[in-house]
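Worked Example 4.2. Read the sequence first, then its structure tokens.
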Amino acid sequence: MKHATLQALLQAQADKRPAVLVTDLASGDETLIVDGQASDTALQAEIDAAVRADCSRTVDHDGRRLFINVFNPPLRLIVVGAVHIAQALVPMASIAGYDVTVVDPRRAFASDERFPDVRVNRDWPDEALEALAPDARTAVVTLTHDPKLDDPALDMALRSPAFYIASLGSKKTHAARLDRLASLGHDQATLARIHGPAGLPLGAVSPAEIAIAVIAQMTRALRQDPAA
């Protein structure tokens, strides 16, 4: 790898931006592509598939044998609300490979006893989200049912490239939530990024089942081609 390419790659990793290094296996020519923006549409599709799968691969493209080396930022999950569902969701997400942070300023909920060995942020949600800076490999899920906590977090998440944003609550609760967020300046296309109610419609009832539904929806958002 050329020195300039290495420096650019290290900068992309520091900025938590997905990058791929495309190398021509015959000539050794290399191209670093940050944020998946290739000029070739067909090659872009190969890059998108590799990035979604978190898997480097060799492809045949335009008569050349290319190696697509994926350098994805780590997966992160920010859970707003140290509630019972969070106690089920956090370990499931950790097993799935997410670096999890629980955000809740209510110390009675956000205790070390309830969340052992978990990073807990007790700042107000908007302050916490600003500091955590969600990137394109971050999921944000709000669970409190309290607009004073959920809305500031969702407002910040919608201003970020987070790949998955979800909020717990009924359809009626979600409709009211969208109205409040619209008053903060978010348009309909932006508000459509929020999965509400959170989770796939599995008929989940218990905290663990709801956590499974959220993990499943989050996985679908991460791995499936949105255009498919």
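Now turn to a second chain, presented in exactly the same format:
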Amino acid sequence: MTQIGLHKSGPPETVLPPEPEQLLGALALAAEAESAQERHDIVVNAVASFPRSLSGWAELGDIGRDKMESYAAYRVGYHRGLDTLRQNGWRGSGYVRWKHESNRPFLRCLAGLQRCAAAIGEQDEDERCALFLRQLDPSWPPADLDS
């Protein structure tokens, strides 16, 4: 279990556990790939080996070959992320802030889902995701979102 802090200044905050080192190593290797196809293949294999990894799904969404592939990857990552949040004490409300490195993969999936929903004209989903991001982290969007 990960820490959940009760704060006098607001709702509880959930911090997710770090991703497996082996997965992070595979994603780093993918980033150095010589071709987009090689990078895609490495990420797909990493996600297949670690299907609960939010970093893997976020990366797969980032490198999707088209908007629907990205949308699907981000959506899976978002739902896996909700499961992971609940397993770590989140009860449907409270902060999941970007400032915690281990929360970033989930927030990347949610932000990617929002962008893809907007791109395909799914306005209600775009708006829901945007609101959810601000509820999870009132300072959304972070200045270092691309990091």
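Notes for the reader: The chain has one domain: 19-136. Residues 1-5 have pLDDT under 50 and may be disordered.
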